[in-house]
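name: query_chain
kind: protein
chains: 1
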Amino acid sequence: MTSKNIVFTAPNKAELIEEKILPPLANEVQVELKVSSISSGTERANISGDLNVSVDKNIPTEAFFPRYGGYSSAGVVTAVGENVKNIKIGDRVALRWSRHSQIQNIIKENVIKIPDEVSFEAAALINIASFPIAAIRKCKVELGESAIVMGLGVLGLIAIPLLKLSGAAPIIGVDPSAEKRQKAIMLGADFAFDPFEDNFVKNVLNATDGGVKAAIEVTGNGKALDQVLDCMAKFGRVALLGCTRNSDFTIDYYRKVHGPGVSLIGAHTLARPEFESHHGYWTQVDDMKALLKLEQLGRMNLEKIVDETHSPKDYKDVYNRLICESHFPIVQFDWRKL
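structure:
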């Protein structure tokens, strides 16, 4: 049996490569993908050869290839290893830390069954959606508290309806793209502002009666963090969800953090408990199960976030756009169209 896989083989080069797929090992599950999602920030860093693709200090500090994307996907189980008891052939599943691969073997801990009511398209975003929900939990958002999302890529857009479910009010989405600001409003934001407008900070302060209580910073950009700190209320909380791969930040910490008592919270998705959830800090699997429940009950609709769906055969055009476009849309690959 063979599998077609999207592989980053060199800087700024993607290929669709057919490779032999072996039977799953004892603790593995074999899955035939139906849908996989692009996480644009991570995959742009991977395909470009960025050295800062992981917070793990043991990862090599020099560019290495091949690299892979597609860590959030969904499909159907086609085989299971001998030690796998709770997952069976034919199960519809969501995958975490997967790849853009037609058929893949993955450890059983990274496979979560999905309810019949949840589409493959929504399930293929569940791993990605577990990032902003963790950031919101860490901010301990309470009913009626104001919230702002800096950056409306896939993580920021998913954060909008999650903040609405959390009872935040008002919710402000921020992005230079008018299209993304409009989408944020559609997903539940009360206001959407352009960070490059002259009155940006003043507009935020007016909308929040003097300052934001909780911020989800998704850009990983020093200027954006500096701006959002200007918008914070006393004792506000800022979750650093975006990957700050460039450490060249200039922040007046004394006046913008220390003085007003603002909390800066590391919100990388791996900065969470591995086995036991507790208040504000859930395991990733528990967060994914919670998101699937919200989808099943109709309280979320992640499909609405998707802008484009492509066959994996269109990989070359998709990744050329990812490399070149600053405002890349929310894109999924439909492996049923291969």
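note: The mean pLDDT is 95.
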